[in-house]
Amino acid sequence: MLRRIYEGQDCSLAHALEVVGERWSLLIVRNVLLGIKRFDGHLGDLGIARNVLTDRLNRLVEYGILERVRYQDRPTRYEYHITQMGRDLTPAVVALMQWGDRYLSGEAGPPRRIEHIGCEGDVRVDLACERCARPVANEEVTARPVT
């Protein structure tokens, strides 16, 4: 099994991967963003083992990405609702889908469109400069340590 901790990595990406970098985690987040909230819904959609799904849901709740909400008392059953922290993963999920659409979708094309509710336009994730608000090409991006 892969380690969950990226020791010696003083990097926000490494810290984020500790939380959502496991194979099933972002697929569960994607499902909740698409409206699948119940355990059985995830089980049927993902084809994941029950114990793995339970573990991933518990971790996402523990980190504050999802919230468990009881919807039935006998037997006790829960739905998993997205929190603001989880909703803030939308750009990451959409960016990964865009990348997959571009490089991995094959001849049939992308299996799903991401639409703006209301006008039904396609939603994209683009880079922009916070200071000048100008669009930024991938080649214009660099990272440096904060001093």
UniProtKB/TrEMBL annotation:
Domain HTH hxlR-type: residue ranges: 11-108
InterPro entries the record matches: HTH_HxlR, WH-like_DNA-bd_sf, WH_DNA-bd_sf
Entry keywords, A to Z: DNA-binding, Transcription, Transcription regulation
Signal sequence, start to end: none
Pfam families documented for this protein: HxlR (PF01638)
Keyword Cell membrane: no
Name by which UniProt lists this protein: Helix-turn-helix transcriptional regulator
Taxonomic source organism: Streptomyces yaizuensis
